[in-house]
Design brief:
- This protein is of the alpha/beta class.
- Among the domains are: about 190 residues, no CATH class; about 35 residues, no CATH class.
- The chain has ten helices and 13 strands.
- Strands 2, 3, 4, 5, 6, 7, 8, 9, 10, 11 and 12 form an eleven-stranded mixed sheet that branches. Strands 1-13 form a two-stranded antiparallel ribbon.
- A hairpin with an 8-residue loop joins strand 2 and strand 3.
- The structure holds 2-acetamido-2-deoxy-beta-D-glucopyranose (3 copies).
- One 2-acetamido-2-deoxy-beta-D-glucopyranose binds next to strand 12.
Amino acid sequence: MLTSLVLLLGTFLLVEKALADSNLPSRFLKYASEQDERFCFGYEPGCQQNSSYSAEVGMPKCDKDVWPKAMSNFYEQADFGYVRTRRNLHEVCVSADTEKKSSLRCSDNLLYCYAKNVFFDLSNLRAATSKRYRNDVIQHGQVGGNCETFWPQVLQNNLKQAGYLSSWAHELNHFRSNALFAVNERNCDIVFERPTIAIKLDAALNMYHHFCDFINLYASQHINGSFHMDVDIIWWDTDTNEYGDHAFGVTWKAFSLWKPIELKSLDGKRVCFKSLMLPLLARQYGGLYYNMPLEPGCHGSGLVHSFSEHLLHRLAVPKWEASLEEVRLVILSRSTTFRRMLNIGKAGLFFFKNLSKG
Ligand SMILES: *[C@@H]1O[C@H](CO)[C@@H](O)[C@H](O)[C@H]1NC(C)=O
Ligand SMILES: *[C@@H]1O[C@H](CO)[C@@H](O)[C@H](O)[C@H]1NC(C)=O
Ligand SMILES: *[C@@H]1O[C@H](CO)[C@@H](O)[C@H](O)[C@H]1NC(C)=O
């Protein structure tokens, strides 16, 4: 009894250590630990709402007079429920031995996919004359793997939400299985050995848009259940100019130890991946958080809260107390049809009153 307890404690400590080494905020450890089933982020099978991350941080919150389904709708739209629905993966291509052969699994409408031992042929990129947001880079015969079982119909059934920043439909539409394919020098000009993330990107200059990229990448790591930083990142940007992530580029350091690679640098090459994530993108239909439907009367998302904690931890941003006397607040109010703050008057007053109190 005592020995088994010691053993159990031993494994528990080992797991805790492995998790700590994976550089997660300490608050995450009990949720990420598979040893302790009492706690969960919120999307795991059998996860009790009361022991989830969101419950601990007191989110989401709804007004008293909302309809009964409001809270769970909000949870699906903006909290860890967003991860849960996208974690149901369809098998497009599977093999028993994925050391050599291929696999491809995707959530509904190819919003997120994970592949092993696959290739993309980038001979149609033609970077020197390429344009932004191109959906025609990957043509027939330019993507595939070697699957023991391949379900082309599953692929066909999930092409409905095609769009550059909505899904991977345009890149995977032509995926085929070829019994002669293997990741080797004959088939590949370049082989990515490390797990790789290829991500199509929204505008880098605008924090609102660019953080749609980052939070969806973070949510995708929850889908894969891994926050390893020894991963390569490819910016799947088809513009002829460099992606030039000067304003918020430091954020990539929360995801990878390595400098992101531009798609352009792979122009014309047959590129093979041993392990490839195609993450959730910035402008899914009803996605997080561009064009996002939100249940009225509710607010506060555990997923977004954890994203914030995670970034602050990984980027080692010190938490300074704000000194009210020294805060300068600038509100930029635009006057376009859709991009307007409707409550700018109220918001200004809110901040002003609080500041003048200090
Ligand atoms: C959550 O609620 C269940 C019963 O509904 C209870 O068994 C469990 O202990 C609770 N978990 C926590 C962490 O409070
Ligand atoms: C996905 O998860 C697997 C299993 O934990 C891990 O080996 C791999 O590195 C992860 N991929 C990425 C891109 O993080
Ligand atoms: C000041 O801010 C607090 C939240 O920090 C808020 O509850 C309060 O209503 C604000 N005061 C005014 C006068 O707007």
